[in-house]
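Predict the 3D structure for this chain.
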Amino acid sequence: MQYKSAHLQPILQNVLAEAMELLGAQSGSLMLLDPGTNELRISVAHGLPPDVIQRVRVRPGEGIAGWVLAHNRARLLKREERAADSLSSADRLASAISAPLRVERRTIGVLNVSGSRDGDFTRADVRVLMAFAGQAASAIENARLSESLQLKMHQLSALHRVGQALTSTLNLSRVLREVLRRATSILGARCGSIMLLSNDGQELRIASAVGLDRKVVRETRLAIGQGIAGVVAQSGVSIVLDKGTVDVRSASGRAREHADAAMCVPLRFHGRTIGVINISGPESGDNFGEEHLDFLTTLADQAAIAIENARLYRRLEQRVNLANRELIRANHLLAQEKSKIQAIVDGMADGVLVTNRQGRITFINPTAETMLSIPAAQAVGKGLKHWPAGKSLMALLEEAQQSDGMTIVKEVLVPGEERRVLSANISPQRDERGRPQGFIAVLTDITALKEISDAKTELVSFVSHELRTPITSIQGFAQTMRDAAPGELDRDLQNEFLDIILTESGRLLSMIGEMLDVSRMEAGRGLHLSLAPVDIPGLLQRAVTAQKAYTSRHDLVLQVEDGLPEITADADKVYQVVINLLSNAIKYSPNGGTVTTAALARGDRVRVSVTDQGLGIPPEMIGKLFQRYYRVETKAHTSIKGTGLGLFFVKGVVEAHGGAVWVESQLGKGSRFVFELPVLGPPERGA
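Done. Predicted structure below.
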């Protein structure tokens, strides 16, 4: 079974469209793995016949996509290469690439593109598609998780209200109508029925129905083992049919083209089957998924309890003592179901908080307790105003009360020593008659996302300032030379001005180049390296000399081991790495001191280190230093301007060369940044 939601489908279409545009492909498809059948099925496609999209089912190892699924590696096909196991009916194909969609070491599908406008796809195209597939898989999985969470919340709320409704009456007809109404509403189904076994347990009859012809309801009789419902009643095992599937056990005899997706679940009480519940015809036109079967099974368990309670009440009215014992057992089972729901809510990654109409807290799960610093033991029955974090939510709850039942989604800043930003989704809670009973707030911690957004804003401001400085120098000296009268500037002064212009131009180009390299790394694309023999002592001497011009308070020392071998590397990028480390050493040594740059051979590698006597780094922050946009958050450090991208760039360049980088530091005593590069250059890609 495979479920394609209305919200997930546009994301899949966008992923395929962007992949085709990125590689200039003429056709493509995105296949997702159905965990129920362990088959790949086409979710979206461009350039494939509709009958191919509908019929294709691929198991691991079968065909190109199955090979990719089984091996978790991309596959490249050249033009005219025979591929009888492809989706195309042609004997020969255009060039094609199939890449796995992987999330946390799990393959969730395969992304296929074919028909390059430029001829054959290349290995570089494969790397691009693999990088894109990694990001796309995360986006698809996040969309799935988000939608699954929303579906779970709707289902939990529905089960809660069904439980209330079912325990409020012993009228059998009302119980059956309520179960069907909730089931068809939550599952988005057009038809549904509940069939109960006769007293002798040999025949099923429709006791309540939605969307069925009255004649069908009145005349339908199924023996145990006859039709889908009879088989489910006999075996006690649910049956799920995909759209277009005709089961030989079906009693309806419908043609394949008219067969809707359907589910049949047994109603079991105390280990025996008392009937079945049938749901069919999802309004989305798709198949039912595992989450729908789980919901219907839970609902069927509750319904079975309620149905049996009603039967017991009607049949055993004179046997009060026995009826009471059965009701106690039934309530115990109902309590177990509610405990299951409680466990699900308590284990959610998002916070859940429920209030009544008076704004008093009626429920708060452990995640929300942590987010808001509101202990559940003290919170239940009290208003939000008693806690600082609760006051932040009160305004949103007041807004929700005025929203005429609309869901409110807004950001909330939680007061406290550490900054925490939550996304609050507040929905009204209603009883079975639609009357407001309070509100349900689902809270998602988006602090990390906000920090990245703020860091990018600060980066734009800082970079704008940094770019303006060399441009201003270039403009000033160029204008001075242009406006000078003939003979006013002697040759030495002109050369001095030109040297400054060249220096600032080089600095500007270096900054722009570093920003472009960072952008490539953020996008998951590899750096382009211009490899050539590099004289490390000469490169370090140039870097140290260049940095001496920016400080008069530091003693810059260079220590290079004799006989240091040349290395194969991108000289410009390695130079920029050294400049970044030296610049940081100077900036974060505000009181001056010695900055030592050293180089020595270590086997088949060359090790370079930059040591300062500056502020040092707190031990708990060292592990985050090389993350993009990260800056050390102490009072002394935050007063020094920076982008948070310098060390991210350093790590990316060093690792692109097949090297390693690390830091050793003591707070208040200084830091030592070290990187190693292989003498023979980076290993061959794909090796």
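Confidence is low (pLDDT under 50) at residues 88-92.
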